[in-house]
């Protein structure tokens, strides 16, 4: 059985939530304890207890079905994320404990109606990008069992790719939420640091850890992140969204790519990425090679410098008192942190800050950076021969991301000729997560591949979302594209959404004695639809924008032809007495064109 996407699942049970009991009986029977993608599978009692919480809230009238946007949706959590009552091992049996409290991210998803069905396998202590460094066994690639699954979030990626759950949580410090997505043809959302709380997550490198989301579709990943994210006072590294980033990329996409792409002799992956770049260009994107030196320098800091000592701190007393309990490769990596001093650590931070500043300056000229999620892939047998070197290769285009405070979205791409997935990743500045998701949804629709390792097709329609971090504004005159005041929008990261028209009860006027010429829009019992443009402006910049609007204009609420309500320009009635009624022209640009040609 393959589960549905989030909208399909919720729609199936919205009318009759009690049918979830039968659905979970079937789902539970489909989860095998011999499948080493799982470390722990929830018992029927544990699942029913979660369902009962939802049923009681609905039956008591405390909540409505609509209050559960993830009604009964099954998901999995990487086994370094606490779920109350379920053991947390971080893939180290000696380390195992049973938490009494959910991690913040788990609590928020449960409150939305999602059901935890199990804990998934990982590279021990989230140290690795391979999926083989676990006493519970190596998780196999879902397309070819001879190949690695990628890690460290190996189990989470595997159960999503096979359609066993609707989504799964991973963690990402150096690429663990992206590489497994690329190797298994699914979506891996690596959010801006601090957006999704890490309270209740076993740390790897606390300054760089992120909780990530695996899903079959970008829309599902975006939905989960929006519910799971938000400021958390329990997490000292949690951050509030400044609400200044654009909702979408620019209309004319401009992507950076590395000037020298390294595939380590893997011709199949190189050809697949070249096809993907050609596909991007066919969709109108401009691809600009950039000097990748500083990215490589920062990536090297994560394991070849004092930053590795963060992992040493994270494992606690295990390394000191029971080193034999650790995977030998993980132990060797973590023990290296003991070779650095506090002075080395401070110098490493100064280096990180300097390189990060340079990276963000380079990316400021582009919508995003496009890279192979991994430049190559290896078989399980090959990985056993070169476990450290090949792991390092996988991190070529991931290791720098969190150090530089960037967000990322791993997407399916063109397959290699041997049938192995070869995903791509888009990387953008902090808090540009929504813009990444908007592009990712259109990319996935254009690619139109089966989802994950299932036969399931992408749903025909994608739900349009308006972010709480943006205000949708209808502009009617001098702020339209190509008009003299449009810069007041674009310089504040506002992005064009669509052309539209007001409802039929508006009239448009050309105001007298205004420079530049401006129109005035007014509601009227006798009117007609007036052409407008819809723009999304970051919430934190909206006040600045409104402050520049001179009398007699202002911002009010407009009704569009399709019934939507948006913010938009209105005019004081007193200013209309000597204005010219231009309603018949249907819009400002149409009147200007006629007026100037007359």
Automatic annotation (TrEMBL):
The protein's Enzyme Commission number: 3.5.1.54, 6.3.5.-
Domain Amidase stretches: 24-436
Keywords: Hydrolase, Ligase
Keyword Nucleotidyltransferase part of the UniProt annotation: no
A molecular function (GO) term: ligase activity
InterPro entries given in the database record: AH_C, Allophanate_hydrolase, Amidase, Amidase_dom, AS_sf
Pfam family, one: AH_C
Residue ranges occupied by any Allophanate hydrolase C-terminal domain in the UniProt entry: 471-593
PANTHER family in alphabetical order: GLUTAMYL-TRNA(GLN) AMIDOTRANSFERASE (PTHR11895:SF169), TRANSAMIDASE (PTHR11895)
Protein name stated in the entry: Allophanate hydrolase
Source species: Buttiauxella ferragutiae ATCC 51602
């Amino acid at each position: 059985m393959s589960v549905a996407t989030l909208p399909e699942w919720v729609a199936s049970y919205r009318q009759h939530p009690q049918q979830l009991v039968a659905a979970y009986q079937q789902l539970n029977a489909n989860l095998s304890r011999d499948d080493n993608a799982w470390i722990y599978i929830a018992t029927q009692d544990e699942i029913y207890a979660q369902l009962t919480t939802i049923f009681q809230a609905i039956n008591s009238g405390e909540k409505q079905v609509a209050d559960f946007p993830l009604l009964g949706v099954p998901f999995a959590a990487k086994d370094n994320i606490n779920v109350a009552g379920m053991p947390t091992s971080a893939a180290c049996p000696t380390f195992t404990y049973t938490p009494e409290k959910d991690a913040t991210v788990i609590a928020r998803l449960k409150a939305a109606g999602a059901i935890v069905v199990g804990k998934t396998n990982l590279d021990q202590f989230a140290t690795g990008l391979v999926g083989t460094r676990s006493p519970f066994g190596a998780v196999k690639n879902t397309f070819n069992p001879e190949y690695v699954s990628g890690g460290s979030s190996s189990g989470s990626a595997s159960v999503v790719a096979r359609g066993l759950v609707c989504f799964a949580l991973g963690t990402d410090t150096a690429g663990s939420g992206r590489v497994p997505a690329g190797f298994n043809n699914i979506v891996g959302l690596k959010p801006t640091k601090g957006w999704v709380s890490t309270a209740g997550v076993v740390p790897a490198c606390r300054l760089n850890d992120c909780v990530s989301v695996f899903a079959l579709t970008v829309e599902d990943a975006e939905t989960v992140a929006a519910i799971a994210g938000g400021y958390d006072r329990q997490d000292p590294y949690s951050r509030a969204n400044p609400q200044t980033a654009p909702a979408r990329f620019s209309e004319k996409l401009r992507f950076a790519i590395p000037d020298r792409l390294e595939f380590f002799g893997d011709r199949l992956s190189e050809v697949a990425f070249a096809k993907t770049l050609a596909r991007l260009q066919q969709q109108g994107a401009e691809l600009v090679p950039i000097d990748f030196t500083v990215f490589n320098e920062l990536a090297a800091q994560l394991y070849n410098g004092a930053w590795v000592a963060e992992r040493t701190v994270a494992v606690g007393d295990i390394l000191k008192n029971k080193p034999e309990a650790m995977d030998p490769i993980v132990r060797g990596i973590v023990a290296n942190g003991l070779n650095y001093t506090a002075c080395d650590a401070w110098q490493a931070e100064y280096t990180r800050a300097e390189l990060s500043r340079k990276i963000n300056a380079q990316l400021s000229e582009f919508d995003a950076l496009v890279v192979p999620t991994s430049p190559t892939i290896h078989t399980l047998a090959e990985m056993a021969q070169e476990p450290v070197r090949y792991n390092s290769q996988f991190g070529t285009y991931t290791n720098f991301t969190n150090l530089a405070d960037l967000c990322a979205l791993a997407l399916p791409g063109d397959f290699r000729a041997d049938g192995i997935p070869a995903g791509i990743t888009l990387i953008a500045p902090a808090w540009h997560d929504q813009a990444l998701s908007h592009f990712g949804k259109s990319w996935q629709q254009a690619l139109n591949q089966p989802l994950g390792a299932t036969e399931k097709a992408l749903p025909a329609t994608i739900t349009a979302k308006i972010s709480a971090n943006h205000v949708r504004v209808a502009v009617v005159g001098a702020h339209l594209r190509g008009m003299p005041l449009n810069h007041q929008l674009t310089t504040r990261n506002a992005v064009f959404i669509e052309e539209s028209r007001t409802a039929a009860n508006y009239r448009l006027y050309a105001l007298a004695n205004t420079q530049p010429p401006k129109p005035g829009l007014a509601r009227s019992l006798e009117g007609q639809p007036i052409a407008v443009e819809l723009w999304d402006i970051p919430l934190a910049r909206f006040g600045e924008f409104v402050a520049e609007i001179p009398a007699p204009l202002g911002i009010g609420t407009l009704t569009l032809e399709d019934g939507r309500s948006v913010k938009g320009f209105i005019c004081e009635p007193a200013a209309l007495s000597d204005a010219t009624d231009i309603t018949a022209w249907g819009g400002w640009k149409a009147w200007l064109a006629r007026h100037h040609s007359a």
